[in-house]
Amino acid sequence: xxxxxxxxxxxxxxxxxxxxxxxxxxxxxxxxxxxxxxxxxxxxxxxxxxxxxxxxxxxxxxxxxxxxxxxxxxxxxxxxxxxxxxxxxxxxxxxxxxxxxxxxxxxxxxxxxxxxxxxxxxxxxxxxxxxxxxxxxxxxxxxxxxxxxxxxxxxxxxxxxxxxxxxxxxxxxxxxxxxxxxxxxxxxxxxxxxxxxxxxxxxxxxxxxxxxxxxxxxxxxxxxxxxxxxxxxxxxxxxxxxxxxxxxxxxxxxxxxxxxxxxxxxxxxxxxxxxxxxxxxxxxxxxxxxxxxxxxxxxxxxxxxxxxxxxxxxxxxxxxxxxxxxxxxxxxxxxxxxxxxxxxxxxxxxxxxxxxxxxxxxxxxxxxxxxxxxxxxxxxxxxxxxxxxxxxxxxxxxxxxxxxxxxxxxxxxxxxxxxxxxxxxxxxxxxxxxxxxxxxxxxxxxxxxxxxxxxxxxxxxxxxxxxxxxxxxxxxxxxxxxxxxxxxxxxxxxxxxxxxxxxxxxxxxxxxxxxxxxxxxxxxxxxxxxxxxxxxxxxxxxxxxxxxxxxxxxxxxxxxxxxxxxxxxxxxxxxxxxxxxxxxxxxxxxxxxxxxxxxxxxxxxxxxxxxxxxxxxxxxxxxxxxxxxxxxxxxxxxxxxxxxxxxxxxxxxxxxxxxxxxxxxxxxxxxxxxxxxxxxxxxxxxxx
Length: 688
Description:
By secondary structure, the chain is an alpha+beta fold.
């Protein structure tokens, strides 16, 4: 079906007033919608699910994730007693015990109470070398904008008269104890059209941040500009990261006076350097010395030679149709490659010079494996690597390995968050409209043990955008609210994601974005064809770009679903570039201001495609007021339009949460349990 709404001026939108985030009329509408949704769904079963999920998310036996700084292991921890969280640290020897002794550096609940602020932790950067000072990043309600505050770790308090910056989309890097490299969108003319910083400044202690000298700036139409510091070999080099678009970055090197050189590589290439070597992965075909290299080929160069304009590549990795390089990083002079080989995780260590390769032994080949350096600062690393291994029915395990390489040793295991007895994990493939095979992972009762075989209540999710790989992680939320109750969960690896590299992403980006939505619908159809379930028992959920996906299932494939939960979504693709960070995503979706691009964008602009007289499944749209990335107006307007057309469309919008389901485990549990209650009720599933 060709759904191509006619282009209308934004002033013709009768729901434009809902884009006024704090508008009196808009807030009154939100309050009425929230009350209606809660009155329908917030029963005793919902309350039990909410409380049970919160307890699972707060459980004492979950894994503490750690980063090492100057011999200390740092962790941020949230539980029932500390919903906002504790920033804390312990020694390596203590961490290895069953009950580590943690030294609390900051109690965010106490700080929020004393200051009357809705503080949410967004991280901290410590002063390299001594690590006795930190720059805290605190968000009000969970948005991307943060307050920067200098913190004394010994005193456990903010530094009197220290570095402090009001709320804005900002970041800062330590140059020395009295100097910061500041990137901020705060103040007149300092933000790009996407709302990110466009200037990098040299901020000295005791001076006003917006009077600090500007070292470099980018054009207002760029996505943003950020600064970083490279201290390899004991010398200081400033790195300016100029993002001209979501997939294009120009990297300049310089000093405290500004840029002095540009790394002469394609702007769409990913690269990193260490030990005199530069590793480069192009996103589009790249010709070097007369030879064309395919996207996702990993090449190595002598870094100094590249800066002189001399390119003599060494091929380190070549992609295959179902074998992709997910990432690469340096650790103590060795290059670590993260590869998905037909979705199986493989990690390889490369030694510069001879470029000998050694696969890290003993890592699982099923499920999901993440690996990263233990040390926060590259120049302080001793080659220790942390590994997190899990699958949908196996709780995460934290393993220790190194660049030696050596078989990983178990550090910690997470306690389970749900009962996985009788569950099995299988992989399948659907065939999309153009014949492409679309993989998906199914988690549910073992074959022959499911009393609802043929009518299984299915929770289906995917993402399909920005080259994000949607992998089968262990999920307390899906486990508690769906699997443990006898349901089936399905995770799709649709095009637009990065599971099979750049080609997979390109096949679902821009003019091909609607293809990723076709893929998701194909998975739903395949579940029916395989006899797993029927369309009315499929409940689909997706957030952000995945929310756009779910909205398109409503307008394009309504007959394949029983219910839809659409969260923190993009939906109005005519105006998305004008709302918050929307302009930064033109590289993913296209520019609706260009008629030739609107011609394909409108095919997946669900806000415009929704029309009267169709048979749509029930849908619940949910967002958060403090989401300063994807505008809450998308979900608000879609709900209002659907309701005006007479459809069963609910809406829910808590105040806090940012671009997520909540700022703490209690809010996440409430948001998720409400969505699950809606989905289960809408598909007629009366679970035990």
